[in-house]
Specification:
The complex is a heterodimer. Chain A is of the alpha+beta class. Chain A has 15 helices and 21 strands. The longest helix of chain A is centred in the first third of the chain and has 19 residues. Chain B contains eleven helices and no strands. The model of chain B has no long low-confidence stretch (mean pLDDT 92). Classes of the chains: A alpha+beta, B mainly alpha.
Chain lengths: 527, 278
């Protein structure tokens, strides 16, 4: 398959570039100047990434705001606004040294005070993920010197160094927000001021967002590009046409439908990559509500896994843009273990499991609630309904809209549904939330909504999150994966592969594990 | 000349009747022709019609047989078409008859009520109704009925208004028959022909409305329907034309057949046209 072959090629290439940044950069010398056209789909409500972490906001806002760290395609932390960092032996003190000569877009100097304000006030109030980390683990945040920030923890947290990515920890200008106003209604939200390589020039609602080069950027000689345009094109077919015609140079995963991807990657002078999503690693799974029969019986969940041909789903429903998931951790993330029970497609085995467990499928009627995200998700629901019906269960699809889905998931009012979530590099940030029994809380579709309870798994996740040494964490996570997969806590379907399609004159586009959300100070266009 | 002979003089109407009979037979025998559910994958995905003789209409992206989908889709289309029309006719005739027969303030109230429905675009209102009451076959049928009764009411009111002043009706009033009795035994039988013609055309409109709703993803998620098949296949038109072509043809033929039948009924029942072709 074209896409997958190129993937391995490109991860190799990205590795080369990273290794080469110190010495001779690449074979080609970057050219200055040029305009890069992209698509913001859908149009973001706001560009202030500290208040909104939806995809398009991060995509555009990632050029304006920067975080302390970014992450490679191997998920190793890389410098961003932090030049270097030291973790104390006891795993309780993290010291970050900041870049020199950094200025906000309005000319004010950037300093450690901004970082302390961001961590201690702004994000603690407005960012649910950071708030949880800050209240659970962080004891104090101080700045002993103007270019140094020190985080002291109450107890070790092995994922802490992964919490400084753009969507989790964008640095906010203190001088604009620390004035007693409500962050959400601060007028500065409309005129975003960051430290990034590009500044907001104009936002014509419904038409485009125009960013221009930041002349005072802290990396000398960068960025190479003069202007960025994020076009707003609401119709999917028109977006594909815009790329074919050359109106836009880059298509982000999700900008066009899966079947268009297959066609567009074959165009002349066009490159594609599935790299750039390693940090998010979206994983698609089935949620089986374990509060009642039949799904409270582990054997039923196993039977369902055997009854579904996941290769078929990836190949025929999602156009090959994915990889069958083996368990709760995406294979591109840290601590992934492939040493888990497997559930190959085997209808006979599925029926035998039900018979051995003395479950009579005809006794149960199951409501299947599809994820209302478009045609492919509907096809998947139809396919899975049919497979489960073959086991003998009575099953009906109950259609909902996006709001209805979120509501019913949050209220645990479902039998069987689908979901996918980002993993954010470390299992403690993006994975554990689905399996910890203390995370069975109403009000969010992204917690432990399936009602999975296993004290051993709780213990292992907590042990791993609090580990100082990576080895201890890895061992605990490996064991947890084995148990969770044997329990079929969720029905893991596949790892999504988002394809970035771009014209081959665009260089250095996808280099890190956060892909296109990475600020594009090194991107250039060949003449 | 008997009714059927008059009807048979219109060849279009005969062709229409033949098509409709075929569709109805396929719909009734669908479980015998295709014992496996139309949702079940039975072959390789995306087989074109010529590829495998077992699937003369091809298969869709999940390997489901298009032919089975067409047969089961016919059941949904005909069922919704007929039931929703029947409901709409009952509502329309009741309101129209009361308004036309009693006139005056009752007429005013009922006709303003009818106009209220007529001013809202029918399809938009059907979408809203279905979206409010979760899409399933009952809510879809009722939604279509609710948006399609006003023309019947207006038609029936007109007929009743004109028939009410005829002598045979006045005679019935004089001999002391009650209002409802006059409406049912005297006026309605004389107004039945235009109602039947309108109703036959409403079946076609109802089938189209149901297909459009399903196309937009507001169909019954557990029933295979033609509109749903087209809606699901539309994005892959370039790669697999047969997935949307055959259900499209099925809708076209069925709606055309019903329109031809309506035309034929009109010719056969309208006394003014009798002998036009003879």
């Amino acid at each position: 398959m074209v896409v997958i072959d190129r993937r391995s090629m490109l991860t190799g290439a990205a590795g080369l570039i990273l290794a080469g940044t110190v010495g001779a950069v690449a074979q080609e010398t970057p050219v200055k100047g040029g305009v890069l056209n992209m698509i913001a789909q859908p149009e973001p409500p706001i560009l202030m990434v500290g208040l909104n972490t939806q995809g398009p906001t991060l995509y555009v806002g990632g050029q304006i705001y920067q975080s302390l760290l970014t992450y490679g395609t191997d998920l190793k932390p890389l410098p961003s606004l932090a030049k270097s960092w030291v973790v104390a032996e006891d795993g309780l003190t993290y010291t970050f040294t900041l870049q020199d000569n950094v200025k906000w877009h309005d000319g004010k100097p950037f300093s450690a005070d901004d970082v302390v304000f961001t961590a201690d006030k702004f994000l603690r109030e407005s960012h649910p993920r950071w708030r949880l980390i800050a209240t659970t683990y962080v004891e104090s945040i101080t700045s002993p010197a103007p270019n140094q920030v020190v985080f002291k923890l109450k107890k070790p947290f092995s994922a802490f160094l992964h919490a400084f990515e753009l969507s989790s920890f964008p640095i906010i200008p203190k001088h604009l927000y620390d004035n007693g106003t409500d962050y959400r209604t601060n007028p500065a939200n409309q005129t975003p001021i960051g430290t990034g390589p590009f500044k907001l020039k104009e936002w014509k609602r419904g038409s485009y967002i125009h960013l221009v080069r930041n002349e005072d950027y802290w990396k000398p000689g960068q960025p190479y590009l003069d202007e960025l345009y994020f076009r707003i094109i609401p119709d999917s077919a028109s977006r594909a046409v815009a790329f074919e015609k050359g109106t836009v140079d880059v298509l982000r995963g999700g900008d066009v439908e899966g079947f268009e991807v297959r066609r567009l990657v074959k165009l002349k002078d066009v490159e594609n990559t599935t790299s750039g999503w390693e940090n998010y690693a979206p994983l698609v799974f089935m949620e089986m509500n374990q509060r009642t029969m039949p799904f409270s019986d582990k054997n039923v969940r196993k039977a369902i896994m055997h009854a579904i041909d996941r290769e078929f789903i990836v190949k025929n429903i999602f156009f090959g843009l994915g990889k069958v998931a083996t368990g709760p951790f995406a294979s591109t993330t840290l601590y992934y273990s492939s040493d888990v029970p497997a559930y190959p497609f085997d209808m006979a085995k599925a029926k035998k499991l039900l018979a051995d467990a003395k479950v009579n499928p005809a006794d149960y009627s199951i409501r299947l609630m599809p994820l209302p995200y478009g045609a492919a998700w509907d096809r998947m629901a139809e396919y899975i309904k049919q497979q489960i019906a073959q086991l003998g269960f009575k099953i009906a699809i109950t259609g909902v809209d996006a709001g209805g889905w979120s509501q019913k998931m949050s209220d645990f009012d479902f039998d069987l549904s689908f979901n996918f979530t980002y993993q954010y590099g470390d299992p403690a940030l993006g994975v554990a939330r689905h399996y910890l029994s203390n995370n069975i809380i109403k009000g969010t579709p992204y917690g432990n909504n399936e009602h999975y309870i296993n004290p051993k798994v709780d213990e292992l996740f907590n042990l791993a999150a609090g580990a100082v040494s990576q080895d201890v964490a890895a061992k605990a996570y490996a064991e947890a994966q084995k148990i969770i997969v044997d329990d079929v806590a969720l029905g893991w379907l596949y790892e999504m592969q988002n394809v970035t399609i771009y014209r081959n004159k665009v260089k250095n586009l996808v280099k890190t594990g956060i892909g296109l959300n990475q600020y594009m100070d090194e991107v250039w266009i060949a003449k | 000349m008997t009714f059927f002979k008059r009807y048979a003089q219109n060849y279009g109407a005969l062709i229409g009747l033949a098509i409709l009979v075929i569709v109805a037979v396929v719909a009734l025998t669908a479980p015998l022709l295709f014992p496996v559910s139309p949702w079940q994958s039975v072959g390789d995905p995306l087989l074109s019609p010529s590829e495998n003789p077992a699937f003369p209409f091809g298969t869709d992206m999940l390997g489901r047989d298009i032919a089975a989908g067409l047969a089961y889709g016919a059941r949904v289309s005909l069922l919704i078409g007929i039931v929703s029309t029947a409901v709409a006719v009952v509502i329309g005739v009741s309101i129209g008859a009361l308004a036309g027969f009693y006139g005056g303030r009752i007429d005013d109230i009922l006709m303003r009520f009818t106009e209220f429905f007529q001013t809202i675009p029918a399809f938009a209102m059907a979408i809203v109704l279905v979206a409010i009451f979760n899409p399933n076959i009952v809510s879809i049928t009722l939604a279509i009925a609710v948006v399609s009764w006003p023309p019947v009411a207006r038609l029936v009111r007109g007929e009743f208004l004109s028939l009410r002043s005829r002598e045979f009706v006045q005679a019935a009033v004089v001999i002391g028959q009650s209002g409802p009795r006059i409406m049912f035994t005297q006026i309605l039988p004389n107004a039945i022909s235009p109602i039947i013609v309108t109703a036959s055309l409403m079946v076609a409109t109802a089938i189209l409305t149901e297909s459009s709703l399903s196309f937009l993803g507001l169909g019954d998620r557990n029933m295979m329907s033609w509109g749903f098949m087209i809606g699901a296949a539309r994005t892959m038109l370039r790669e697999a034309w047969w997935m949307s072509f055959f259900p499209g043809v099925a809708i076209l033929l069925t709606v055309l057949a019903i329109n031809l039948i309506g035309e034929g009924l009109n010719d056969a029942m309208n006394p003014h046209l009798r002998g036009r072709k003879g």
